[in-house]
Amino acid sequence: MDLKITRLRREFRLLRRVEPRLAVRILALIEVAKGRPRLRAAMDFEVDERTLRRWQRRYERGGLSALRRGHGGGKRARPIRGVTAQRIRDYRLRYGWGAETIAVHLAAEFGTHIGRSRIERFLKRAGLPRKRQRRARSKHTRVVVVHEPGAHTQVDVKYVDRAVLGGERAYTYTFVDHASRWRYRRAYDSFGPMETKDFMSRVLQEVPFAIRRLQTDNGVEFTYRYLTNPDAPREHALDRLCEAHGIRHVLIPPGVKELQGLVERSHRLDDDEIYHRIRPQNLKALNRELELHNRWGNGVRR
């Protein structure tokens, strides 16, 4: 089919509202039919000259039907079905994992090798997309790399929503090691120096390496620095415990929670993987759930 301006203009008027993309291609062919250099026309429509040549060949060969955007070559994506599909749904609903983490666990636990893009496509079609929240850019851009377990650890306390524990109040202490990502959690009905001492005593019994440095914020459960006379400071239970075990206790500057990013990230993981799916009746049941997750996270999770 030759490039005739009259026919091309008629087709453009018919398609400019119905198929605007196809109408743009027809406009480009109109410029070529007018005798305008193909390179100039391609630059005006922000396409490559070879693309414009391809449009012209398609139109001359089959008219509008050939000019329409066709499907790319290659194989069609294979759908994910059966038990593998159920496992992917369970991983997303139970732990909130992304496609890359799901792919690693499928390969390691079941020998099922599926690409990340296939899993993302499946989750999207299953109505389980991941909501991405835009966070403010942090002023702390330095990347801290620690290779030896115990050289840099963090502890913090998280308030557990009353809805999780049937209306009761609970506070979860969390210990995280930077190098190995080893974590330990335990819940209490309050937080203070005695709860901190009990928690750290349990950590020292469970941790598989020696702790050399412990970092905390300036809460009263960790220090008395801002509650006593600086000239005669009152000794905290955590300081006595750290001194007895040769641990250096480090306090972050007041108001700079970003320096506790490792344990804050652990709190977010717990919200995604634990608290949204459990409903323990009391504090004892909550600690059983946390103990199971401690063992699973430190020994099974990739």
Written overview of the protein:
- This protein is of the alpha/beta class and 302 residues long.
- The protein contains twelve helices and five strands.
- It has a five-stranded mixed sheet with strand order 3-2-1-4-5, sandwiched between helices.
- Strand 2 and strand 3 form a beta hairpin.
- Helix 3 packs across helix 4.
- The model has no long low-confidence stretch (mean pLDDT 87).
Give the key terms.
alpha/beta, Nucleotidyltransferase, domain 5, 12 helices, 302 residues, five-stranded mixed sheet, single chain, 3 domains
In short:
With 302 residues, this protein is an alpha/beta fold. It is built from 12 helices and 5 strands.
Helical content band: 40-55%
The H/E string reads HHHHHHHHEEEHEHEHH
What are the low-pLDDT stretches, counting only 5+ consecutive residues below 50?
none
Q: Termini separation (Å)?
A: 60 Å
- How many strands? 5
CATH architecture of the largest domain: 2-Layer Sandwich
How do the strands line up in the largest sheet? Answer: 3-2-1-4-5
- Main beta-sheet annotation: 5 strands, mixed
Shape: elongated
Radius of gyration: 31 Å
Name the average pLDDT: 87
For this structure, what is the CATH class of the largest domain? Alpha Beta
CATH superfamily of the largest domain: Ribonuclease H-like superfamily/Ribonuclease H
Strand content: 5-15%
The CATH topology annotation of the largest domain reads as Nucleotidyltransferase, domain 5
Structural category: alpha/beta
The number of domains: 3
Number of helices: 12
